[in-house]
Design brief:
about 300 residues; alpha/beta; six-stranded mixed β-sheet; 14 strands; globular
Length: about 300
C-alpha cells in the first residue's frame, strides 16, 4: 500500500466549502459550525444544497444529483481550498458514482474532511484520486460544535499539522507489537458495505486499519468483521487501531468480539485511539504512513509525515 498525495495545509483566509453528501443538516447546527470556522479566520461557504431535504426519503439531504453537484462544484472551484462535510448519516454511497472523478482529479488536491457515512468517500478519494483525506469531526456535528478537544485537534491538523504527528491511546494493546503501514479505514459497517462496489479498495494489505462504529449490536459488528475476513480484505493488514463504539453494546463485549474475530490475524491491535463517534474525537489522516507501537501499556501512533503538506 502506497502513501497518498498530501494536500496543502490551510492558512488564515482560506476558503472552505461545506457540503452535505449524506443526511439532512439542521440549520442551527450548520450556523454554529460556520461561526467556529470563521473564528479560525477561515472563510466558510455553505454550498447551494447543503440544507436541502429529500422529498420522499427524509434521511437524505436532497437528491443524489444535487448532493453530488455541490461536492463536485466545490472541489473544482479553484477559489476553494478545502471541502468539509456537514454531517454523516446515510447517502454518500448513493452519490459517489455520480461524481466526475476525472474532472475532480484535474482540479488538483485539496483538503477533504468527514467521518461516519463519509467513509465511502474516503475510500473513493483514496482509490480514484490517490489523495490523503482527514477522518475527523464535521462542521455541523454536535461532537464538533460542543467539544473543545475535537475543535483544537482539527484546527491543529489543518493549520499546524507538525504539532499533532503523535497520538497516544487511552486504552491498551489488545495484541502487543509494532507495525508500520498506511492509515486507512473509518466506519466498520461502511467498509463492509463497500466490498464489491466499483473502484472499491480490494484489500487492506500493508495498511494500519482504523475502525469504529455507532449504534450497532455486537452480532452486527460480528457480521461486518466476518464479511471482511471471508472476502480476504484483511489479508496482509499490518495493524489495527480501534476508535469509539458509541451506543454499541458494553465495550467489554465489543473488545471480546474484536479479539475473537481479529486476534488470529497475528498483528498488533490497540484500542481507544479517540477517533470516531465518541466525544472529543481526534482527526486521523488516511493515506499517510505511520507506525503503531502497541506495547504492554498504552499504544502510540506516530505519523511519518504531517497530515498536510
Amino acid at each position: 500500500m502506497k502513501e497518498l498525495v498530501r494536500p496543502r495545509r490551510l492558512a488564515p483566509g482560506a476558503r472552505v466549502a461545506v457540503v452535505a453528501p449524506s443526511g439532512p443538516v439542521p440549520e442551527e447546527r450548520l450556523q454554529a459550525g460556520l461561526d467556529i470556522l470563521r473564528g479560525w479566520d477561515l472563510e466558510p461557504l455553505a454550498t447551494p444544497h447543503v440544507l436541502d431535504r429529500h422529498g420522499e426519503f427524509d434521511y437524505l439531504a436532497g437528491s443524489d444529483t444535487d448532493r453530488a453537484a455541490d461536492l463536485q462544484a466545490a472541489w473544482c472551484d479553484p477559489a476553494v481550498d478545502a471541502v468539509l462535510c456537514a454531517r454523516g448519516g446515510y447517502g454518500a454511497q448513493r452519490m459517489a458514482d455520480l461524481l466526475d472523478w476525472d474532472a475532480m482529479r484535474a482540479a488538483g488536491p485539496k483538503v477533504f474532511l468527514g467521518f461516519s457515512d463519509i467513509t465511502a468517500l474516503h475510500e473513493a478519494f483514496a482509490t480514484r484520486m490517490g489523495l490523503v483525506t482527514l477522518h475527523g469531526p464535521m462542521a455541523a456535528g454536535v461532537d464538533f460544535i460542543k467539544s473543545a478537544r475535537a475543535q483544537e485537534h482539527l484546527r491543529a491538523t489543518l493549520f499546524d499539522p507538525e504539532s499533532v504527528r503523535t497520538i497516544t491511546s487511552t486504552g491498551r494493546a489488545l495484541v502487543p507489537g509494532r507495525a508500520r503501514g498506511v492509515l486507512l479505514g473509518g466506519c466498520l459497517s461502511l467498509l463492509a458495505a463497500d466490498l464489491g462496489a466499483p473502484h472499491a479498495r480490494t484489500s487492506a494489505s500493508g495498511g494500519l486499519l482504523c475502525i469504529e462504529d455507532v449504534g450497532e449490536e455486537t452480532y452486527r459488528l460480528d457480521r461486518y468483521l466476518t464479511q471482511l475476513l471471508r472476502a480476504g480484505w484483511l489479508d496482509g493488514v499490518a495493524g489495527i487501531l480501534l476508535g469509539s463504539w458509541e451506543r454499541c453494546d458494553p465495550y467489554d463485549r465489543v473488545r471480546a468480539l474484536v479479539l475473537d474475530r481479529l486476534g488470529g490475524l497475528g498483528v498488533p491491535i490497540a484500542e481507544e485511539f479517540g477517533f470516531g463517534h465518541g466525544e472529543g474525537a481526534l482527526t486521523i489522516p488516511f493515506g499517510v504512513r505511520a507506525e503503531l507501537d502497541a506495547g504492554a501499556g498504552t499504544a502510540t501512533l506516530t505519523l511519518d509525515a504531517p497530515a498536510l503538506a
